[in-house]
């Protein structure tokens, strides 16, 4: 196999010939630089041309996708915040119930202490030991 020469002699040609040579050099550079998979993508890009329609369509599609993702994120965030607020309210209600039970139990314990003291006094006075 012959090794291709890296030196390229550019003869004096007209503008059209110069463009052909530059295009050939670009193609050669793509073959040397790009791996096999990316060369196919570059060929498709060249075939579509630079009309701007594909980029405009994909740009609008990307904006629409971003907008939908943003709206979904807001909805999920709102749902999570609502759930957290619901849990805070439920926890507050439970804490109020527990506090009221503790207060009533404290009153009951104080009453039992008073009754115990009265019984002890009565037993001490009656002389039963």
Automatic annotation (TrEMBL):
<dbReference type="Pfam" id="PF15145">
    <property type="entry name" value="DUF4577"/>
</dbReference>
<feature type="transmembrane region" description="Helical">
    <location>
        <begin position="65"/>
        <end position="89"/>
    </location>
</feature>
<protein>
    <submittedName>
        <fullName>LSME1 protein</fullName>
    </submittedName>
</protein>
<keyword id="KW-1133">Transmembrane helix</keyword>
<dbReference type="InterPro" id="IPR028099">
    <property type="entry name" value="DUF4577"/>
</dbReference>
<keyword id="KW-0812">Transmembrane</keyword>
<keyword id="KW-0472">Membrane</keyword>
<feature type="region of interest" description="Disordered">
    <location>
        <begin position="37"/>
        <end position="57"/>
    </location>
</feature>
